[in-house]
Write a structure and sequence with these properties.
Elements (H helix, E strand, L loop, with lengths): L2 E3 L2 E2 L3 H8 L4 H21 L2 E3 L17 E5 L9 E5 L8 H21 L11 E5 L8 E3 L4 E3 L14 H14 L8 H23 L9 E2 L14 E2 L8 E2 L3 E2 L15 H4 L5 H14 L7 H10 L9 H16 L4 H12 L6
Parallel strand pairs: 4-6, 6-8
Antiparallel strand pairs: 1-3, 2-7, 4-5, 7-8, 9-10, 11-12
Helix pairs in contact: 1-2, 3-4, 4-5, 5-7, 7-10, 8-9, 9-10
Length: 352
């Protein structure tokens, strides 16, 4: 069984690179330290996904319960840190700990209730998370076995536990790791990132009780500090519009293949080109209406866990398989199938 390295952060390197060149030396220094910490974690821990893991059908277990443990790094970098809350413990005074505990629970609950899945691996995997990682660390990441959250610097980024979709986004990297195991490079890497955004958005909507038309479809809303000109890290509804700030720059995400970005940075633009499949999901969810996790989310989940998706899948393969998943579950000619075909056609990805 072979391995390949992957390091999944919610704030993309291109954005941190921009901050590291800021005229404000304080902002530049913080971004540089975050980039250095990310590079160190990537090398030291050899973050991996397992190649060759076959997807297995979900096993429904109505009695399944999460097994959450929250640790406090106390602004250090040794993981996991000091245990501060276990499963079933009452909330404490640390709002960050409480938010992360709740976010892990909401993600677990959505997977169980909507898809009959018992945790990320469908076998009750423990959900561990570390908070208060490093000083003014401007990111959150999945390291192959647990979640890690920084506090932000208060000037560009606030506490990374504030948006529940950030918590769910990073957990969804674990879901992908235990199912399709998409390689973290080029289009398969962009699909990996997009799947995390999709499930991040679904968890947020599930928590808020929103239908697709009520949702804002923003990833990381509430994460940017008040003086930043922007609303979130990404927009699934309108990729490329999440921020346009003197310091952060402009959101570079494309919404269609017409603006696909070819780059050697960020593992081939995994955080940038994810805007295209993100937008396709948004279009499908709003076309179908209702609760996005019920039909649109089911199609994406079936595709991720169906065993057909190759680890180096490109957008076209993923699109074709979502259409096949819709046909298998809802029937040829159904609104779900027509919605999938229309969504991918709109963003310029063929399904045939």
């Amino acid at each position: 069984m072979a391995f390949h390295s992957v390091f999944c952060t919610v704030v993309p390197p291109h954005l941190l690179d921009k901050l590291a060149r800021a005229e404000n030396q304080r902002i530049a220094d913080r971004a540089t330290r975050t980039l250095e910490r990310d590079a160190f974690q990537r090398t030291r821990r050899r973050i991996t996904t397992v190649r060759g893991v076959a997807a297995v059908p979900p096993v429904a277990d109505a009695d399944a319960k999460p097994r959450r443990t929250i640790y406090d790094c106390e602004n250090g970098t040794d993981l996991p840190g000091r245990k501060v809350r276990g499963e079933g413990d009452e909330p404490g005074r640390d709002a960050t700990v409480n938010r992360v505990y709740a976010g892990l629970g909401a993600t677990f609950e959505l997977l169980l209730k909507a898809y009959g899945r018992n945790s990320l691996d469908d076998a009750g995997l423990k959900l561990d998370a570390s908070v208060h990682f490093d000083r003014e660390y401007g990111n959150a990441f999945w390291d192959g076995s647990q979640m890690v959250f920084g506090d932000g610097d208060g000037e560009i980024f606030l506490d990374f536990s504030i948006p529940v979709d950030v918590i769910a986004h990073e957990l969804a990297h674990g879901l992908t790791q235990h199912t399709a195991n998409l390689e973290y490079f080029s289009q398969s890497g962009a699909l990996n990132e997009s799947v995390s955004d999709v499930f991040g958005a679904l968890v947020k909507q599930y928590v808020l009780g929103q239908t697709a038309d009520q949702a804002d479809w923003l990833i990381g809303e509430g994460l940017l500090a008040p003086d930043v000109t922007g609303v979130a890290l990404r927009s699934m509804k309108a990729p490329g519009t999440a921020y346009d700030d003197d310091v952060l720059g402009k959101d570079p995400q494309p919404a269609t293949m017409d603006d696909y970005v070819r780059t050697g940075r960020d593992n081939g633009g995994v955080h940038i080109n994810s805007g295209i499949p993100n937008h396709a999901f948004y279009l499908l969810a709003t076309e179908l209406g209702g609760k996005a996790w019920e039909r649109a989310g089911q199609i994406w989940y079936d595709t991720l866990t169906g065993g057909e998706l190759t680890q180096d899948a490109r957008f076209g393969e993923f699109a074709r398989l979502t259409a096949a998943s819709a046909r298998a579950r809802y029937g040829d000619g159904s609104p779900e199938v027509e919605g999938v075909l229309k969504a991918w056609s709109t963003v310029g990805v063929p399904t045939s």
